[in-house]
Amino acid sequence: MGSSNTTFSMQIWQQCEQQYQVDPKAYITLQDDYQVNVNLLLLAQSLDHQGYLVNIQQWQQLAAVIEQWETNVLKPYRQLRRIAKAHLAATEYQKMLDVELIMERKSQKILLQQVNLIQGEPLSTHEGVNNTHHYLSLYGLDCTHLPQSISKR
């Protein structure tokens, strides 16, 4: 079976959000300990679930397309929010979290545009290979680095 273009909608992020809610701390730990992008990891898991394979070069492209936004805007804001936490009332801190979520949604929109340009393949034609493995390999990790709570849907 050849490659195919599948169009994904913002609904994919709703599925990712449900997966994230399984164990948010596990995802944040991967982000903090290994600099894994949670949105990309969730996207990889969602594409695995949907049987749509993206190759490693395409994962590199997906990571690159949001790198500037994340490096220049999102990550510094996240760091500021974490520093400010001890000095803010709960409602003020929540407002900072809300702004960060807006920034995360922008990352998701950028990723959605890019993933819709990619020619993927059916996952079933590649035994033992999946998106989660491809994405984690960009960090020198594999699926054994995932806590059990988030390793399978």
Instruction: Give the helix level as a range of percent.
Output: 55-70%
String of helices and strands: HHHEHHEHH
The counted number of beta strands is: 2
What is the terminal-to-terminal distance? 26 Å
**Strand arrangement in the largest pleated sheet:** 1-2
Q: Tell the overall outline.
A: globular
Please tell me the total number of domains. 1
Give start-end ranges of low-pLDDT stretches. none
Class per helix and strand makeup: mainly alpha
Report the sheet-strand fraction. under 5%
Provide the residue-averaged pLDDT.
91
Number of helical segments? 7
Structural overview:
- The chain has helices spanning 11-20, 24-34, 38-50, 56-84, 90-115, 131-137, 148-151; strands spanning 52-53, 121-122.
- The chain has 153 residues and is mainly α.
- The protein has one domain (11-146).
- It is globular.
- The chain starts with 10 loop residues before the first helix and ends with a helix.
- The model has no long low-confidence stretch (mean pLDDT 91).
Main attributes?
single chain, 2 strands, globular, TIGR02444 family protein, CHP02444
Q: Which SSEs are present, and which pair or pack?
A:
Layout: H1 11-20, H2 24-34, H3 38-50, E1 52-53, H4 56-84, H5 90-115, E2 121-122, H6 131-137, H7 148-151
Antiparallel strand pairs: 1-2
Helix pairs in contact: 1-3, 3-6, 4-5
Structure summarized in a few sentences:
The protein is mainly α.
